[in-house]
Design a protein that fits this description.
The complex is a heterodimer of chains A (about 950) and B (about 270). Chain A has about 950 residues and is an alpha+beta fold. In chain A, about 35% of the residues lie in helices and about 25% in strands. A seven-stranded mixed sheet of chain A has the order 19-21-17-22-20-23-24. A seven-stranded mixed sheet of chain A has the order 37-39-36-40-38-41-42. The longest helix of chain A has 21 residues, at about 710-730. The radius of gyration of chain A is 28 Å and the shape is globular. Chain B has about 270 residues and is of the alpha/beta class. In chain B, helix 3 packs across helix 5 (about 100-110). Chain B is globular and about 50 Å long. Classes of the chains: A alpha+beta (about 950), B alpha/beta (about 270). At the A-B interface, helix 1, helix 2, helix 3, helix 12 and helix 15 of A face helix 1, helix 3 and strand 6 of B. Chain B: Pathway: Purine metabolism; IMP biosynthesis via de novo pathway; 5-amino-1-(5-phospho-D-ribosyl)imidazole from N(2)-formyl-N(1)-(5-phospho-D-ribosyl)glycinamide: step 1/2.
Chain lengths: ~950, ~270
Amino acid sequence: MAIQEVRVRTTPYLEDIKGKYLLREIQNTLHINGITGLVTAKVYRLEGISVQQAEFLARRLLAEEVFQNYTVNETIIKDADKLVEVAYKPGVMNPEAGSILKAAADLGITEMVAADSSYEYGFYGNLTDTDTELILSRLLVNETVEKVVTEKPATLIIQGQPGGTRVIPIRNMDDAALLELSKDNLFLSLEEMQAIRNYFINLDRDSTDCEIETLAQTWSEHCGHKTFKATVLVNGQAKKPLYQRLRESTNQAAHPLVLSAFEDDSGVMHFYDGLALCGKVETHNSPSAIEPYGGAMTGSGGVFRDIMGTGTGAKVIASTDMFCFAPPDLPDDEVPPGCLHPHYLLRRVVDGVRDYGNRMGIPTNNGSVHFHRDFKAKPSVIVGAYGLIPAADAGKRRPVTGDLAVAIGGRTGRDGIHGATFSSGEMTSRTMDVNSSAVQIGHAIEEKRMSDALLRAREEKLIRAITDCGAGGFASAFGEMGEDTGVRIYLDRAPLKYQGLAPWEIWVSESQERMGLAVPPEHMERLEAICREHNVEVTVIGEFTDTGKLELFYHDELVGELTMEFLHHGLPKRVMRAVPQERPVQMIEPDYPRDWEHACIQVMQHLNVCSKEPIVRMYDHGVQGSSALPPFAGEAGNAPNDAVIIAPVPGKKYGAVIAHGLNPVLNAIDPYAGSIWAATEAVANAVASGANPDELMLIDNFIWPYPDEASMYDLDRAVDACVDFVRATGMPFISGKDSLSSTYRAPDGSVLKIPPVLCISCFGRIPDVTQTVSTDFKQTGSVIVLVGQREVQQMSGSSYFDITGAASPHVPVIDPDRLITTLRCLYQANRSGKVLACHDISEGGLLAALAEMCLGGGVGASIEVPAGERADYYLFNETAGCFLVELDDLTQAVELFMDVPYSILGKTTAEPNISVTQDNNSLFNIATAKLFAAWQKPMQEVFGGC
Amino acid sequence: MLNTSQVKPRVCILRTDGTNCDQETAYAFNKTGGESHLVHVNQLRSGAEKLSDYQILAVPGGFSYGDDIHSGKVLSVELASFLNDQLRRFVDDGKLVLGICNGFQVLVRTGLLPWGELGTIQATLMENDSGHFECRWTNLLVEQNNCVFTQGMAGTVIQYQVAHGEGKFYTDEVTLEKIEQSGQVVFRYASTTSGQATQDYPQNPNGSLHAIAGICDKTGRVLGLMPHPERFVETFHHPNWRRVQLGEPHGLPLFRNAVAYAAQTGAGC
């Protein structure tokens, strides 16, 4: 059918904003300076309508005369020296297409059968072919999902004949053939492949592709957590599986507020008024490494669905994001083959989180970004979500025989096939080519309307059980739900984005924005009505049975049949060996600073210390009208707080607190100490803001290199740290996730281990959000108190040691038993109303914390370093669990903190300087403005000013 | 005439795919004496709900239909195509219409603002000059005019949060002059120091002409604004409630004025 093309651009006498910033980026990041101008246009392709209809739509829908021009079937950027159009590849869902069709229909044009939109870039000036290539590859085209349009497509409709079901002659495969089958697709070990072969030998038949794929999904590291469930042999000594140890520590803590731990799509704690809070944190490293925008979006979308899939469905009330990247100024030649530049990755991941969270209407209000060169092969992208649900609707639900198996939300396409298995594999230089189908572009609005419909359905008690179709798609959702009963699925009934999918593809596709439901038949009609009202597609694709089997049909053909017993319990149990790795102990002490100003500025502008405000400003952190402590505040709105506090129930003063901690640098040096640090940092952030340490829950995310013996040892130590932390503090882990594929294999076979990350998130409840504390100094003449235990020579892993090239075996050692005493004491102090401001010490040390408090308060500070302490260590030590507290007067310090380690640091001043003395000598006196400028500079350079 | 002490004005909080500030907007109206109902546009299209049963229509913030094509565009087309008569009657009956953020974009793109001419687009909200989404608190100077929603607030500088990527108010010079002349500008982004209208980023977060953050129609009964008054209806909503005394949360008077006006006039019911 004919395609009409409508092109729209900003009227030439107005500034083309998109073009302006793109040009700036070309100049700043690619250093291409021959381009004198850049104009952009949007291209709409509309299939099945006439030229006149296209003209009508251009006028009424696509272009606005007030500020735009349009053309129909004609170029619009006519005089450019070079014109390039970039579009999504066929099969990559363009979320805008559906809106174009809908709006055209609303305007009376119903003949349109397909639509697409893309962007055209007109370059002016001197542009070489090399320049063009660089601009396209680095800024405009991600070949995984996008392409340069060289000719007008003949049709926008994706055609295809559905593939059939293949029989895989697995019974006759030798080990080499099994491994070949597994490689690049299934990511299963030989032992696992052998178990599958034996299963089918016993059945006396070969397997279908559906069956093999189902097993590969369910048994993937991503879904099956094989390493965490394995027995660990540490130096030959058997230890309990990691997962079991974490769960047992939670059970032993017996925290009265825990409602559901490690059993549902998220962890759940009691809130107030019969409500419950839930939390889940996920990683999305592998997809984000190859398509950062789509990968981050689907990461957010997935973790939101984990909340939506908790109990009979929770409402998402907050979102968090924690990233680890290589430095954005990494030289191009250091980017490993097959990997994307961190500058591009960082910005596109932020864009993805922004576009998904903002459109879903979920405040993204807590997060952090960490940098280390060794993330150059693969970033760590961690996204969290928190939700609210009536306590009575929480807790894991199971389908009942006779319930309908229902798919809700988006349609199924070929996108996202093999995401779960892919996420479980190592990244190699081939990853981008082989696994490009594993990524897709998220459609936040699809998920938002599904969420609206599901919350209504939950209120009307229509849902028996619900789960996310995340990794593994229908296979993992229905395979898991039907574990106790059995389930029969008719794959041909699943609504598809386009024809041409083989049955196994329908079954394992990870197309986003879908969930699986178990619905009692008598509720189906009402559920359908609710979905209709919300423009949500809902389809019965099977039923829960009493056979104890997974049965897959395509039309009338049985294309897969596995016992639930084998599917869920047939996975050979692993034994993981752990052997400590020698870590050469270096000791390079830095020279005592001669130029204090230089040292302070270097620390403040260290990437792990600097302000991340430009990122936060792009996230809607105020939507839902719940904010009680925002990520940034203070006099000029640019000083960071430690945690976020929201009051999610309108009209109620009780609230939820959310915080997190991670330190990949320390984790790489000392996995145990780094893990304690991460947990301490998380809860210190929460308690500094006014949380009660006895009402906090923890979530773990282990992002680790592939567990060879050395990494397994480190992982074991990290889990030991978590367990010890729980034992000492009583704060339980109630949810967690592991991703053990932070390893990169280069074409030459060399291996790069990405720094291990343990991200600890914490959340809790607060009876009254008006009894909480921000970090900004409130007045001049206040007393500044340092609270908490630290040994300042424990400098290893600090930003200061990084900039001075120093090294030391002495990492910050935190005693969790002493920590909990300090935290309880600080909580009481915060509740007393006497604490004017409180900030925890983390990256950048005491000086950075002090500077941030001054920035928020628009004041200065005068402090004294105790005699005998090495002043640079005192100022830059990064031991977590220590706090700066602002009080009215000295007597309050004794009264509030007599039971814990504390010292008087100094006072706030009207002069906007930080002045530091020791032994009555001035060490330095630096204008706070200089520190702020340094602190704000790095991210402003990446994202622009704010 | 209704007894205003007994009957709460009914507020239609219009929802569709991608609406996401509906619940807090409903709460703001309820807190100030209204009775909010969340109404999906499909319910209006099907006739299950009628605009005439309400005294106030609020189009809340969000990303209606993903803000595809232009922000608020697809919903504007839908309203102008299917609810044209209902909307026109609603406004003609002297009832109130409030568009916040995405809702403002919708009101402009339906033509209800600035001139109340459904189907005729006279102004627009363009991409921010910064080139990206901005979420930050802004100072707003409230202008003196006949806007029902801001009675008693004129001359004050208040603080609301903005959160948008396309909020630059733009129109041709003639229209802009006309809007100014007829006193339809309600809010302007103001400098933190002088309290006067400003073009400086980030106090003016998007580069709006004449620092315009919100306008009303000539009757003063249809208001659209980019900032979010519903995000400041509790003291603790403000980022700096711990360091400054701000008095009553600045969003409350806007909603209270609307509810009080609707209760007094009892228009159409």
